[in-house]
C-alpha cells in the first residue's frame, strides 16, 4: 500500500543557456507554493528542479560564447542556485541532465524500450526548430515552414534516427484524458491537447546523428538521445529511477508538474506515452501557466527582453515579488509585467491592508500596556462572526489551493483581511475603556492575524514568519495546522514589537530604469511605410481543415472585383468553420505568397487576442463591398 501522505512536485528543467529570468522564477515559485502548501497539510514533500543541459540549442549557444558545452552550462548553475535561495525556493533536489546518474538512467530507459520494441531505427526527414528543440509536425514541401509553436524559422534535417512508437499510444492517451479530465490544470488547456492527439500521432524521432552534445544512444553511439527524451526523464531520475527502486516507488507518480503553456505538448502527450511504454503510472496533474510578457511579447532569453529576478529582489525583496507573481498573474492568462502594478500591490495589499493591521494592533496594545493578550472566555457576537468568517476563508483558501488556483486563494484571503480591518475599525478599540472589551478586540484581531500568517506562508514564507513572530507564534508546521486554525479561538498571544512588515512605495524604484533600458515602444513608421501594406476587406466563402496540420484552416476569400484568394490561417483551436464562413474580415492582400504544408497562402487574415487569450477576428462594423481597402 502506497504512502498517500506524500507530495512530489516538479518544475520544468531550464535550458542552461543564460541566468534564470522572471519567467523561470515564476514556474519555480508556483512549484514552491504547492510544495509549501502540502507541507502545511502535513505531507512529506519532494520538490525537484534543475537544468536541461544537452542538445543543439545548448551546443550552439556554447559555440557562440566560444566555450566547451560542459563549461558553458556549468557557468550558469551558481546563478540558478543563488536566485532560488534569494527567493526561498525550498527544493529537495537540483538535478542537472549532465549528471552521470541521469545519463545512466536515460540509457537504461532507452535500452528497456529498445528491448520491448517501442523504439525502432528508421530515417527522419523533415523540419526542426532549434530554439524549441522540436520536430515540426507540419511538413512543408519546398519552402521552410515556420515552427508551429514559436513561429521562428526551421531547418531541414535528413538523418538516420531511432523512433519511439508514439502512434501506438494514441487511443490509450485519448482514453486517459477522458478518464482524467483534471489531468491538466486549468482544465480548459486539455482541449488543445486532445485536439492535437485526435489529429493523429506520428512516431517520434528520439535520436540525432548530426548533434554531438547529448547522451550517447545505448549500443549505437553514432546517435545521441533527442534532448526532450533526455530532459523529460529527469522527473524519474530525480527520484532514483533504476537506482533505488524503493525511493522511486515511494515518490512516483509525481503529484504535480508545473510548466508554461509552451511546453504542454511535450508533457501531456510525449511524456505520458513514454511512461505508458515503461509501465509506469502517469503524473496526477500538470499545472500549466501562461506567459509573462514585456511590451506584449513573451519574456524570453532569445528575445532578450528578460527581467532579472536579482534586480527585483534588490528593489522589492523576495516575498513581495512572490506575492505579485502569484496574485497578479492569474495562472490561466498571459500577463504583462509591470513595476507600477507591483509597486501598487506592495503599497495597497501588503503595506496598507496587511502590514498596517499588524502595526496598529500591536501599537495600540502596547499603548494600553497590553503585552500578553489573555485567552478570552466569552466572545461577543461581532467576534464570533469574525471567527465564522475566518473558518469560511480557510475552507475557501483550501479548495483554491488544492486546485492550484493560487490567485483565487489569495483573493479570498484578502477579502478576509478587509473584513478584519473593518471589524477593527468598527470596534474603535482606541476609545474603549473597558479592559476586558479591549482585550477581546485585540485578541480577535490576533487570532485573525494568526490565520492570515499561516495561510500566507506558502506564498510569502519569510514575511509569514515575521508576522507570526510579532504575535508570539513560533511553530508554523505543527501537524494538522489547517484543522488547528479552524478550532474555536482560545489562544493567548505574547506580543512583540518588530520592524514594519512592508513599506509603502513612496517613490517609484530603480526598476523603472531597468524597464526603460528596453525599447518601450516600436519605432515610428512614416506614411509611405504604412501605405505599402494593402489591407482589404473580404468575405470568407469557404473554410476547411488542412488535413496535414492540426492548426491550419484553408480559407477561400472573396475580394470582389479583385477575385478569390486561398488564404491559410492557423486558428483552428479558436474557431469552428461556421464561426468564419460568411463573415467579413480584414486581410493583408499584398503579403508575398507563402507555402505551408504544400499549399499556397495568398495573404493573411488579421486577428487580435482577447482578455482570455483567445483570438477574435478583425471585422467591419457594417458590411462593405468586398475588396474595399482600409485607409
Ligand atoms: O523549455 N513567462 O526550458 P526553458 C512564464 N528545457 N514562464 C516562462 C516564461 C515567460 N515569459 N519564459 C519561460 C525548456 N518560462 C525545457 C524544459 S522540461 C523537461 C524541459 C518558464 O528554459 C515556463 O515554465 O525554455 C516554461 O515552460 C519554462 O520556463 C521553459 O524554460
Detailed description of the structure:
- The protein has 631 residues and is an alpha/beta fold.
- Among the domains are: 311-494, Orthogonal Bundle (Isoleucyl-tRNA Synthetase, Domain 1); 523-617, Nucleic acid-binding proteins (OB fold (Dihydrolipoamide Acetyltransferase, E2P)).
- The strands form eight sheets. Strands 1, 2, 3, 4, 8, 12 and 13 form a seven-stranded parallel β-sheet that branches.
- Helix 10 links the parallel strand 12 and strand 13.
- Helix 12 packs across helix 13.
- The longest helix is centred in the middle third of the chain and has 29 residues, at 339-367.
- The radius of gyration is 28 Å and the shape is globular.
- It starts with 5 loop residues before the first strand and ends in a 14-residue tail after the last strand.
- Residues 512-522 have low confidence and may be disordered.
- Ligand ME8 binds next to strand 2, helix 1, helix 7 and strand 12.
- Ligand ME8 binds at residues 12-15, 23-24, 26-27, 52, 231-232, 259-260, 262-263, 291-292, 298-300.
